[in-house]
Amino acid sequence: MMKKLNINLSENSYPILIGNGLFARLFDEIYKRRNYGKILFLVDGNVSRIYRKQIIELIDGYFTGKGLDSSTIVKILPIKPGETSKSIETLSKVYSYMIDNNFGRDSLVVALGGGVVGDLAGFAASTFMRCVDYVQVPTTLLSAVDSSVGGKTGINFLHTKNIVGSFYQPKFVLIDLDFLKSLNKTEILCGAGEILKYAFMTGPGFYSFIKKNIDKLLTLDNVVLTKIIVECLKIKGSVVESDEKESGLRKILNLGHTFAHAYESVLEYKVKHGEAVAAGLVCAVILSRKLSLMDEALYQDFINFLKQFTIRKSFNNLDKQKLYSAMLKDKKNRGGKIKFVLPHSIGELLVDVEADKDDVVYSLNEFENVVFS
Ligand SMILES: NC(=O)c1ccc[n+]([C@@H]2O[C@H](COP(=O)([O-])OP(=O)(O)OC[C@H]3O[C@@H](n4cnc5c(N)ncnc54)[C@H](O)[C@@H]3O)[C@@H](O)[C@H]2O)c1
Q1: Minimum-distance ligand 1 atom for the alpha carbon of 122
Q2: Choosing a second label site near 147 at 20 to 30 A (CA), which of 199, 235, 251, 326?
Q3: Is the beta carbon of 146 within 6 A of some atom in ligand 1?
Q4: Is the CB of 142 under 6 A from ligand 1?
């Protein structure tokens, strides 16, 4: 059964469709909005390899059925898998490809992949010819619960994560749960990292549900998966609706991310974003306790739960000074001070928390003790 949510942002409003087998409806959803002249599929390389047949069949079936030649309308550009594709070089290839293939203002970009392709495609769409429309078809758990919704687009530059980007909303988001079936365990855990973030943002009910159903989530049980995706997107949707461009409330979505981005940068993006978020959440919980912003019982509960998420050895024994320096470059900082989002209790987050360097370094060290000893 299909679930539908709406993101209400006046003229930038859009629906999110969630269910099994929805990819088959992609062109119906596209053309009921506008008669696009050309469509560019930016497709994650692994998705293109695994789902090539389905993608081609869908395109050929739709256009042949209408007596049209799909090759003049639809182009597919595979994107090399991995964070390094969120780069100025890949963006340049996308622009060149669109120019070489005569894409105009009446074009649509389809992001078919995880957060990397989604962020890149959104940014390309927001800047090509001063903007063309785009849609998000997320194929990872992380992109389904988080990055495909909210309109943050961007690329990394000079080792700084998401430093160049825009706020630009898609026309719709189509989440076909069937794509998630080919994800490996690491990618599912990465999605779980962002899901845990949402567990801290709402009342105790959702946190308990996730704790109780964590095994079902990790094995992608359809009922549990659908409920969790819907709940996460409801939370994200309401935050984005009240603060689209992150001038206030939207900052709470960065819980764990100040630490996470520093880990990604110091580890030269050789770890996954979701893994870094899981590590960042542990650090945020430790820092919150260190600053006496969270009580001991809740701290122990969070830590015991978060410890179940295997965090790779590469997060151990890192240079704390380097991590701290990376945090100083965070976009959320003001006046040279690092601004943290920290959990206070379940459903209650504190934003713009400043901490002394000693307390931050303590949290980084304690993270290693808690997770690796
Ligand atoms: N814009 C936002 O609001 C936002 C929010 C959170 C994260 N992000 C960004 O999202 C990115 C991380 O996204 P991600 O975790 O989806 O990473 P990703 O896009 O790199 O995908 C992870 C891996 O899964 C593979 N993959 C994708 N779909 C697959 C499928 N169906 N089956 C098998 N393999 C598949 C990819 O090839 C890749 O190797 C980061 O760059 C992060 O900064 C953006």
Answers
A1: 1
A2: 326
A3: yes
A4: yes
Q: Please, are residues 190 and 273 in contact by the beta-carbon 8 Å criterion?
A: yes
Instruction: Say if CB 101 and CB 38 are below 8 A apart.
Output: yes
**Residues in contact with 284: Cβ distance below 8 Å, sequence separation at least 6, in sequence order:** 255, 256, 258, 259, 340, 341, 342, 343, 363
Nearest to 147 by CA among 304, 300, 303, 253: 253
Pocket of ligand 1 contains residue 119 by CB under 6 Å: yes
Q: What is the pLDDT along the chain (373 residues), one digit of tens a residue?
A: 899 999 999 999 999 999 999 999 999 999 999 999 999 999 999 999 999 999 999 999 999 999 999 999 999 999 999 999 999 999 999 999 999 999 999 999 999 999 999 999 999 999 999 999 999 999 999 999 999 999 999 999 987 889 999 999 999 999 999 999 999 999 999 999 899 889 888 888 999 999 999 999 999 999 999 999 999 999 999 999 999 988 888 889 999 999 999 999 899 988 999 999 999 999 999 999 999 999 999 999 999 888 777 778 999 999 999 999 999 987 777 777 799 999 999 989 999 999 999 999 999 999 999 999 8
Cα of 122 from ligand 1 centre, angstroms: 14
- Report the candidate in 57, 104, 100, 58 with the shortest Cα–Cα distance to residue 77: 100
**b or e along 97-113 (b: 16 or more beta carbons within 10 Å of the residue's beta carbon)?**
ebeeeebeeebbbbbbb
What is d(CA 269, CA 300) in angstroms, rounded to the nearest whole number?
A: 30
Q: How far apart are CA 100 and CA 320, in angstroms?
A: 47
